[in-house]
Amino acid sequence: MALLDMVAAERRRFADLIESLTPEQLASPSLCGAWTVHEVSAHVVAPFAGRPSWFLPLILRSRLSLHRANAELARRIAQRPAADLAAELRRNERNPFSPPVVGLFGQLTDLQVHRQDIRRPLGLPPDLDPERVRTALDFVVGRRSLGFGSRRLRAGLRFVATDLDWAAGDGPEVRGSAEALLMALTGRRVALPELTGEGAELLRDRSVRVRT
Q1: Is 0.70 topped by the overall pTM?
Q2: CATH architecture assigned to 128-212
Q3: In whole angstroms, what is the distance from residue 89 CA to residue 95 CA?
């Protein structure tokens, strides 16, 4: 499957998830700091829903912090109903939006990780597609994965998925489901207890000290 086809499929699945949630679920905390589930959904839609005239004032008000500007943008877009956000994703499912450096691989990974940022705290089971999560894992352990976890976190370790044919790295092994590995490698500490192997304790120790 071509990369844009994978991204389009993940956008459709994200839209399906948003539409399936109750108002209470949308207002629940996500795994993304102080963001609610609704705000995470808004963040995913932001490349298509944000107005160009918003960006410079947001950056200036955020003292040139892209992180703070993104957070404010997500809160602003989250004022729209979830159904609108889902419709926006579907309208743009084949939009070739490609962030600098990380490109469409970053988009594919972002969609999968943020869907789990929503599903995990809501008690919903993981639902990752094997081919697409394998592609995301290859990207996360590669050199272009700027902003998707610290290289110091994974250095000198070998990661092995227990539910699909994927492994990467050299050193003490860290074993777990592909979903748990993806979440841990992108800085989600909630997945760390699910990992095993002689390298798992080292990864847990690093996660406390390394800012992802």
Answers
A1: yes
A2: 2-Layer Sandwich (3.30)
A3: 9
